[in-house]
Design goal:
Layout: E1 48-49, E2 64-70, E3 80-86, E4 96-101, H1 109-117, E5 120-121, E6 130-131, E7 141-146, H2 163-181, E8 187-194, H3 196-210, E9 217-226, H4 231-250, H5 254-267, H6 269-276, H7 294-307, H8 351-356, H9 388-395, E10 398-404, H10 412-420, E11 423-424, E12 427-428, E13 436-440, E14 455-463, E15 466-471, H11 478-481, H12 483-493
Helix pairs in contact: 2-3, 3-9, 4-5, 4-6, 4-7, 4-10
Bound molecules: 2-acetamido-2-deoxy-beta-D-glucopyranose (11 copies).
One 2-acetamido-2-deoxy-beta-D-glucopyranose is lined by residues 238, 241-242, 245, 273, 277, 413.
GO molecular function, one term: serine-type carboxypeptidase activity
Keywords: Carboxypeptidase, Glycoprotein, Hydrolase, Protease, Signal
EC number: 3.4.16.-
């Protein structure tokens, strides 16, 4: 998957218009559902999805609801967000719901659904969608939401210029969602990936700020390879150290390695790492002057790509050939296009798929839209590590930040640099380096498609309400490549296990 969940510009032309005809309107008496069916009421029936009627999917995906809801109390508001909601059958879930958000800005959360954590996944290189043994819906109620306005199947006109406005629109939508599904008082968890590292803390903060636990009973958040600082901190500064670490894989020659290490010294990156990536951090704020060295990164990527033409920043171990995908990559210059013999269409643009999941028929779905979801592409909010993330951690019971070690879009050391420079719950950074073992239990009897690694999967550390962990064999999209690991830290977020070094079996086994 070469999908960009991040802040890279996409070249596709986006079309989206307000429209909501073509929904399946069920009339009472409602069909008998195979599973719990508790959510089927007069107000939810128009969102009901027939679980045996998804094109290409040859099994029952269970009870779910999808469609559009407005971002304000005005029922006729033309700005509406698209959601796909799956109640869980896990009795341990109780009255709680997890929101999943992809990044971009402008990437659809259905990407995460189909590639990472949904009840069925259709991963790159596989020829049909299959049941996902690691579906997050095994653990709790989950809703995938296309936001902000202009993203995925959401409709309307983007008007926002910062995360405060984004949050206000999201909360407007969420109030309608709670009313529609009668979720008053339910515990809310928010998880996001990549650029959603900016959405998650701002939305959670806005929810806490309402004091309205009827509609916004926010409990905790989860970050997956997420942007909480800036590209300099989370990418440029730690980049050369990262290349040094992985050069047994990249195989860059000594001359080039010497050149980039000297450049890292000149740019101030080496000194910055030495000074601030320490545990505990120095008390003074970061004060090393960095030089403008933006071409260094371009040179590094060019050198790696020279050796490995299929090099993928999302997962540095990827190699040729690039796999065919029902979510085709954007047409980057020079990027080869592979077609399947059967489905040459993007899964979510198949008309029968749109109809089955109550998506607006006239919206051309794009994995990451080329529209400006922020007016003029400007998101004016300060990065979350400038205050908002701390406020959210301080008011949550559990906050999880997971980072894949094979990700070269955002670097784990960069996230740690940011956290070491951030103050929460009365102190700055972590006092000791993450060193507890993050353990993923084994599970037997899975089919080949759902195989996933187990054992010690990285290191973790919890301090003052924040849990950081690295996931060894995952890149930017952890639930796609290391689904068992992501399932495990979701168990932790939800309070089902006490710590990530626990060797207890999965709670669902
Ligand atoms: C649901 O709709 C049916 C038929 O339209 C109606 O008879 C019934 O009273 C409604 N129930 C509620 C709780 O509104
Ligand atoms: C659900 O879809 C299946 C397969 O298309 C169909 O046989 C069934 O009648 C549908 N159920 C309802 C309630 O529409
Ligand atoms: C929505 O309804 C309100 C009140 O009925 C009306 O004033 C407004 O013009 C409508 N807006 C749109 C976009 O149709
Ligand atoms: C929420 O509660 C806090 C603390 O009690 C208070 O300072 C704040 O004004 C309240 N906010 C709203 C919107 O009621
Ligand atoms: C935190 O955990 C305590 C004890 O389990 C619980 O009573 C409380 O409601 C939780 N609060 C939040 C915000 O999660
Ligand atoms: C992360 O930073 C530490 C300290 O500078 C360094 O020893 C380590 O090699 C770095 N790891 C990676 C993967 O860059
Ligand atoms: C910069 O930080 C270092 C410690 O990290 C400190 O020794 C030095 O005095 C600081 N310099 C300034 C100008 O603040
Ligand atoms: C070393 O790598 C650099 C960067 O890819 C390349 O330009 C150079 O030709 C290489 N040198 C040798 C001797 O292979
Ligand atoms: C292959 O994909 C390209 C780009 O999406 C499309 O233009 C072309 O028609 C496809 N060819 C076949 C045989 O499906
Ligand atoms: C797991 O982590 C907790 C908290 O850091 C620690 O107290 C405990 O000793 C660790 N257990 C193991 C088996 O490492
Ligand atoms: C998820 O649920 C399915 C169906 O009950 C089960 O087969 C699978 O083992 C569960 N996955 C995990 C990781 O427990």
């Amino acid at each position: 998957m070469k999908t960009l969940y991040t802040f890279l510009l996409i070249l596709l032309l986006g079309l989206a218009a307000a429209h909501q005809d073509g929904w399946t309107h069920l009339q009472p008496p409602y069909p008998k559902l195979q599973k719990r069916g508790t959510f089927l009421t007069n107000s939810t029936s128009k969102f009901w999805v027939n679980g045996t009627n998804i094109p290409n999917v040859d099994f029952d995906i269970g009870e779910s609801y999808a469609g559009l809801l407005p971002i304000t109390s005005k029922a006729n508001d033309s700005n509406q967000l698209y959601f796909w909601y799956f109640p869980t059958t896990n009795p341990a879930a109780g009255n709680e719901i997890l929101i999943w958000l992809n990044g971009g800005p402008g990437c659809s959360s259905l990407l995460g659904f189909l590639d990472e954590n949904g009840p069925f996944t259709w991963k790159p290189g596989t020829y049909q969608p299959l049941q996902n043994s690691w579906a997050w819906t095994n653990l709790t109620n989950v809703v995938w939401i296309d936001q902000p306005v202009g993203t995925g199947f959401s409709v309307g006109k983007p008007t926002i210029t910062d995360e405060i406005m984004l949050s206000a629109q999201f909360l407007g939508f969420w109030r309608n969602f709670v009313r529609t599904f009668s979720l008053q008082g339910w515990k809310v968890y928010i998880a996001g990936e990549s650029y959603a590292g900016r959405y998650v803390p701002y939305i959670a903060d806005a929810m806490f700020n309402t004091n309205d636990t009827t509609n916004f009973n926010i409990q905790g958040t989860m970050m997956n390879d997420a942007l909480i600082s800036d590209q300099t901190t989370q990418y440029f500064i730690p980049e050369v150290a990262y290349v040094n670490y992985w050069n047994q894989l990249f195989r860059l020659n000594d001359t080039f390695m010497q050149y980039i290490n000297e450049a890292a010294d000149t740019c101030g990156y080496t000194a910055y790492m030495d000074e601030y990536l320490v545990f505990p951090p120095p008390s003074n704020p970061a004060n090393i002057t960095l030089q403008k060295c933006s071409s260094l990164s371009t040179e590094i990527q060019a050198a790696i790509t020279l050796k490995n033409p299929c090099f993928d920043l999302l997962l540095i171990t990827a190699s040729c050939p690039l796999l065919w995908d029902v979510i085709p990559p954007p047409p980057y210059p020079g990027y080869p296009v592979y077609n399947s013999t059967g489905t040459a269409n993007t899964f979510f643009n198949i008309p029968a798929v749109k109809q089955a999941i109550n998506a607006p028929a006239d919206v051309v779905w794009e994995e990451c839209t080329s529209r400006n979801v922020f007016v003029h592409r400007i998101d004016k909010s300060p990065p979350p590590d400038h205050g908002v993330y701390s406020r959210v951690i301080e008011r949550s019971n559990r906050t999880v930040f997971a980072h894949g070690a094979l990700d070269m879009i955002l670097l784990a050391n960069g996230t740690l640099l940011s956290l070491q420079n951030m103050e929460w719950n009365g102190a700055k950074g972590f006092t000791s380096q993450p060193s507890d073992e993050f353990y993923v239990p084994p599970i037997s009897g899975l089919n080949a498609f759902n195989q996933a690694g187990s054992g010690v999967f990285g290191t973790t550390h919890t301090e003052r309400g924040l849990t950081f962990l690295t996931v060894d064999l995952a890149g930017h999209t952890i639930p796609q490549v290391a689904p068992a690991a992501s399932y495990r830290y979701l168990e932790f977020l939800l309070g089902r296990i006490d710590s990530l070094n626990s060797t207890e079996p999965f709670t669902t086994q």
